[in-house]
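Hello again, I could really use a second opinion on something today. For a while now I've been wondering how a particular protein folds. Please have a think about how the structure follows from the sequence. Here's the protein in full, and shout if anything looks odd to you:

***
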Amino acid sequence: MKNIEISNDVKIPVLGFGVFQIPQEETKEAVVEAIKAGYRHIDTAQSYLNETEVGQGIKASGIDRKSLFITTKVWIENVNYEDTLKSIDRSLERLDIDYIDLVLIHQPYNDVYGSWRALEELKEKGKIRAIGVSNCGIDRVVDLGINNSIQPEVNQIEINPFHQQEEQVTALQKESVVVEAWAPFAEGKNNLFNNEVLQEIGDQYDKSIAQVILRWLVERDIVVLAKSVNPKRMAQNIDIFDFELTAEDKNKIATLEESNSQFFSHADPEMIKALSNRKLNV
């Protein structure tokens, strides 16, 4: 598995297993199967409401904790100094681990500065190894870095063939921020898994459309999170290190760009209100 360096002592596996929208009753087994398939990077969040089951899966896998990279995210209601400190303790308890490899501020709302100071302190204490943000523009990332002790080390954003974020990725990587992609398959929107351009590329290498997309992201040095509860699909998604895309392949993928989110804008006032009003008591 290829790793990307976050800092001198922290490396993140470039392929992660995401558990967003996996039901609680299926999460433990999904994590066990993902680890069995070769994943060592598990990505969850307070708002996914399955941290406990992720922790159970980690324990049941029998894999040494030090061999795993675990990410969680602070939900909006906890994005302030005091509640970030308290909620990370709760996340550690639910995950049943002594430290978290990466903690992200899930959305760029509420008291991001206060929350960031709390994450810096938790990192200093060894409860967290790396800290970052999610769904932030380059302006917010640089602003946080300039006005605090630690610059965000990771930014997890939507990236897929229809929303490629070339300019944003380049700007973040220029600032030495590791970029992670959520929804790499756009949740199947635009009939993604029957896309003729991606299928044509995949046929050249005897690879699936999903494998082409994952390979395309990895070759951009983007950490990518894939989700499946199907063990065969898990194994297929991780089997992307035996081929390379050509410049022509990448140019074809570039033609799929639609230059807009496949879900919603994080700058939409109504969406900000809706997300901020989602109280989860996590």
The first strand starts at residue 3 and ends at 7. The chain is about 40% helix and 15% strand. The first helix runs from residue 24 to 37.
